[in-house]
Amino acid sequence: MYDVFDVHHHVGRAFDALGGELPSEEEQAAFDRIELADRLHIMDEGGVRQAMVIPGHGYLRPAGIADTRGVNDGIAAYRDATPQRFPVACGIVEPGHGHHSYAEIDRCAGELGLVALSFHTRFQGVSLDSQWIVRYLDRMGQAGLVPIIHAMDDTPEEALWKLATLARAHPDLTIVALDAFGGFEATRQCFHVAELAPNIVWDTSLSYNFDFIEDFARRFGADRVVFGTDLYSHPVGQRISHLLPQIVASKLSDEDKAAILGGNARRLLKVPA
Predict the structure, then answer these.
(1) Sorting pLDDT into bands at 50, 70 and 90, what band is 33?
(2) pLDDT tens digit string along 111-126?
(3) CATH number, residue 21
(4) pLDDT tens, 214-273?
(5) Which of 27, 244, 250, 254 would give a disulfide with 23, using CB separation of 3.0 to 4.6 Å?
(6) What's the total number of domains in the chain?
(7) Using CB atoms within 10 A of its CB, is residue 66 exposed (0-12), middle (13-18) or buried (19+)?
(8) SS (HEC) of the chain
């Protein structure tokens, strides 16, 4: 009934930064095949037609910006290999690379054709209100890239008040916040931040149910909510978010449900028809 688009699919080995054993080239190739098959199966079983893919932020980077460039090349290739399911992709830049990231922002927008850049500062060694991120968002606005901001309020690096500060510094730039509904107190804070920063759009990932988000959509408009699952398929994920059937069963209008489940994200990310 609804053409579902998921804004929050991570691609990559989730545990490298936690000391996981690094695979050989043969093992990595096998992992990649299984990972894609698992992801598509989860999407099909859950009723999700398309998704935006985002690299995992736990990648190792002993070579600095060269590793980041490799991650961005990889996510563009992942998109290009299965464009009917992953029509758009999101990259990463690291605040720790300072002014060197400006060229990578431009390359992501131009050469790679990415539509967004993601920040997950608990993995990036800075706070969300870092002046480098403020400057990067200025450059991203010029390049037409959408900022994707992980905002898990239970970690000080990603506190919601810092998200509000960042958004208010860029009032003409639409920001997509991920993971913000991950707990009761954080969810209540989202209502306050949404009033302060009307340029933030919020994904549904990590919420334990849709009830509060339904209230949020009624108060601020369904255009402020997008469907996201934080799917990290093999070997972590097994199923699509439990929220999808709750959204369908909610008392929102069919028009609002369609907007949340795909229309808003496709418009914001300029997803090809």
Answers:
(1) confident
(2) 999 999 999 999 999 9
(3) 3.20.20.140
(4) 999 999 999 999 999 999 866 666 667 889 999 999 999 999 999 999 999 999 999 998
(5) 27
(6) 1
(7) exposed
(8) CCCCEEEEEEECCCCHHHCCCCCCHHHHHHHHHHHHHHHHHHHHHHCCCEEEEEECCCCCCCCCHHHHHHHHHHHHHHHHHCCCCCCEEEEECCHHHHHHHHHHHHHHHCCCCCCEEEECHHHCCCCCCCHHHHHHHHHHHHHCCEEEEECCCCCHHHCHHHHHHHHHCCCCCCEEEECCCCCHHHHHHHHHHHHHCCCEEEECCCCCCCHHHHHHHHHHCHHHEECCCCEECCCCCCCCCCHHHHHHHCCCCHHHHHHHHHHHHHHHHCCCC
Report CA-CA distances (Å) from 167 to 119, 148, 246, 262.
13, 11, 29, 23
Domain that holds residue 90: 5-269
pTM of the model: 0.95
Model confidence band, residue 16 (pLDDT cutoffs 50, 70, 90): confident
Q: What are phi and psi of 172, to 5 degrees?
A: -95, 5
Count of Cβ atoms closer than 10 Å to residue 84 Cβ:
7
Which residue do the tokens 């994904």 mark? 203
Q: For the chain, how many residues are written?
A: 273
User: What average pLDDT is seen over the chain?
Assistant: 94
Residue 63 burial class via C-beta count within 10 angstroms: exposed 0-12, middle 13-18, buried 19 and up: exposed
φ, ψ for residue 160, nearest 5 deg: -65, -30
